[in-house]
Fold these 3 entries.
Entry 1:
Amino acid sequence: MSKRSLSPEMNESSNLVGKSLFVVDKISCSSSRTNVAKYQALIRSFGAVDADSVDDADLVLVDTCAFNKFQEDLSLKIIQQNQKRIRTNATIIVCGCLAAINPKRLEEQYGGKFFSPKNESHLRDFLGLKKLENETMAYSAQGRHMGVSLQTQRPVFSVILRVVRALHRLDTITPLGRLPLIGQILASSQAANPNAYAITISQGCLGNCSFCVIPMAKGKTVSAPVGEIVEKVREIVGQGTKKIILTSEDVGAYGKDNHSSLVDLLNRIIEIPGDYSLYLQHFDPRWLGAMKEELRAIMASGRIAYIQFPIQSGSPTVLARMRRAYDIEKVVPVIDELRREFSRVTFSTQIIVGFPGETNDDYVLTKTLMSKRLFDWVQVFEFSDRPGAATNAMSEHVGTTAVANRASALRRHWFLQRYFNFRALASAFLIRAS
């Protein structure tokens, strides 16, 4: 949201004065949810007030996700559920990545107003805010408190999320971060923590992954100014916030467009006095080689509590087909080195199982990588084709049953290796308790 203030005349002439707004953003990523916070603040600035529920709202803003088929299906289900609940004269506006990734399906199954992150000006048109200047929607250091109860169709995940939220509430009373397993769960789930604050430091990506369509939705990396982010962190630390998430489609690409870098940004942030920790989401391993020494110095400050390196696969062959811009044999030693030196930091990763052409040998390589216990937390995703992705044209797609079986087996394998290995658990306890 731009710092430019809106004049009383604009507010008085707005057709939003007295209207009620309800936001539905339970399934999207931290980055998308900070975008929604910007839209919400904008609508409020023109006189709208928050509604208590969908049933009471004049305007309903629904955020969506479509990075895989599961999230796309869930987004459409949520849109349709809200369509059935809204009042006769109420308006639904859909935003988020689904609007860019699969607009055809959105039109067929929803048919209403929608806009993507790359055409935010459409929101202005939908709301009749003709006097609103483009600079008001210009990209900036967006942020918001987290804690939205993420929605899922899988009962076991619903139970896990309820437990996680309870742990975050308990953590405000008694520190749980020193406990093995609990500490890693808390660090890896800050998006569900109402006391955590997320800042989207950049939007978009410089990658060209064959499976990913997020660049279709958000374009190339656009970074917020360093000074603006630093001041935002200073502000929220001054308000007592202790958990700060720095997020993007790729935080490692921060500054590639404005002659800065993630290292420059972090060095500025860690100078801010206060009791707080930083959580880095989505750090593409491609940047690790160039940043290793500078990142080590930053981690030595003790400010970094969590860092996610989305490895995606342990197979060089699969990574080449994915068009991931790193050599797994060079990346793993760097992560291992950092993990050994900074054992109190929670390391996380993401894995895609069942990528086209993935053989059982490829899968075993990923399983072997998980056995190395490089990561305290692993998100395993089942591959699904996305509209417009290069994988659409690939042969040797793995059957859905085989993909599901591999994903389930990998989750079990990693969890048993990491948390039911007595030596590893004892070591983690000693580290966390020290």
Note: Residues 105 and 111 are 9 Å apart (CA to CA).
Entry 2:
Amino acid sequence: MRSRLPSLDYGEYTTTWDRVAKAGLRELNIDAWAAGRRYLSLATLVLSSAEASQLRDVTTRFGGLLDAAVDGILADPDWWSALAWPWPAIELARQEPTHPNGRASLFGRFDCLLDHRGTWQVIEFNADTPSGGRESSGYEPAIARLPSNDGLRRLHTTSIGSHLETAIRQRVAQHARRVRCIGIVSSHTWLEDMAQATWLARRLERAGLAALVGDVTDLAADGDRILLRGQRIDALYRFYPVERLYRHAVFASLCEAALDGRLLLLNGLRAFLAQSKACLAWLWSNRSVLDVAACDTIERHLPRTILARDPAALDLLADGVIKHVNGREGDSVVFGRTLAVGAPEWEGRLLEGGYVIQRAVEQVTVEDVEVDDLLRRVTRVAPKFACVGAFTIDGAFSGCYTRLDGPITTARATYVATLHQTT
């Protein structure tokens, strides 16, 4: 894995950047700038054919493993406290209908790191409100066509949007009741997530499915009907975190409607559970009771991940990364070597509960570019760490969403296209 950099001439770079950003608007990429900096980078992450093939395989394998982890945790009360969930939410997840083939989530993204041995390591899964679809379907094709990327190809030539359309259309057809309208909600105060909601609605409408976008506060229950902006919906997709939705009065009505089949939840509580880091700890702790192939996949591609309250956690502290099971965007992530045993920061996490510790991955580093618009200068920056998001839709690999940042990926990361060598 390496990065391929564009021209460092400021005029040429910014002209090309503007063209790519404009192309992304067709897929509602309206946030090429973030907090005054260029979120979109024209650097390209280049994988070898072998690295690309391994990533596809790992994504497919772990999709099934996460489904098994969700079922395993919900069937084992000893693991419920590890979720840091209120008990009613756990019981609702236990009763929530699964997707066909026992899938916990229809659409998700594995965040992967390539270690120095050339082996992909799965560090997280995002299935509650997975981001990156707009970038993959909007920016990546435009970047792949740049002359600077001659000889490189996309890992997945079919649009992620098209895959998602097909998967949701099939899921709707399998629902026991007719789905006339799909509601898609987020918060009007979150530009990116509302853009994602609108992007998905447009894709579904292209597939012949009626879709309605609204704010989460536009959801309401009226008798046995669930309404969005006063209109009845028969299915719901959220770009709004479930832990926030849980605080809304309509949450109970949504769950009740899902349990009795009146509402198809396309990303329900099981999807939220699937992205919990507790599922990764469950897989590591229970790998020996799974089949040989599953055990081998876990030991090869999942860094050792255990609950922070596990007695063995202290042995992993110096070489580990501590994460909250429900954390998002790098929130609550800290390297264990920065904490001393008995330090308030470590003891506080143990008292709070809901943390795991995962062996840190010795990553391959790459380069990125940084643009100074005041000095009209483009420079190389290194080292950067590539967090490669591998999409899975209904269990199949469906493209990538890669961000470059420091050792911990945060909201300040830059987006880069992921391509692979043809030979």
Note: The chain is about 35% helix and 30% strand.
Entry 3:
Amino acid sequence: MTPRSFFAIVIKIIAIYLIVESLAEIPQLLGTLMSFFQIGGFSGSGIGGLIVPLFWIALIVAFYIFFFRLCLFKTDWIIDKLKLDRGFDEEKFEINMHRSVILKIVIIVVGALMAADSLPQLCKQVFAYFQSSAIYSSFKTNLASGWIVYYFVKFSIGLFLMSANRIVVNFIELKRKETTQNTELE
């Protein structure tokens, strides 16, 4: 393994981890927007009160998408600009594993972390739902129902990453090959 391929793997690992962690921000963002609407934060300020927060949200989401695409699919560009593969005494590291095997291991670990992180929270929210089911009449009106859905989806994504890791690795490798072919044509 060369220093270049090592740093490409490290950058992709960081990107995959940050993607998984950024998924936790979506329910918080939606909850903030919903509470802002319920309080009436937009009613007194007119259309300007709606445009400014939506602009900032769109800007932040665009930054996240740009950063993730850059880290996952343009790792060679990052390595070239930061000169990460310069200054090593040896041309090769003695790790005899293919890039896709390491990515597969990382995706399994990230999926396991997601599943292990969300399962206790899912159980807690289901318990809270059954505790308060006497107060609320339906799943839709219960306060815990949104979190139950969120943690169930997060747990399911973790299980998917652990079981279908080859699909994710093939997608990343396919995008890497397409990027390499496009740069060779230019």
Note: The chain has a mean pLDDT of 80.
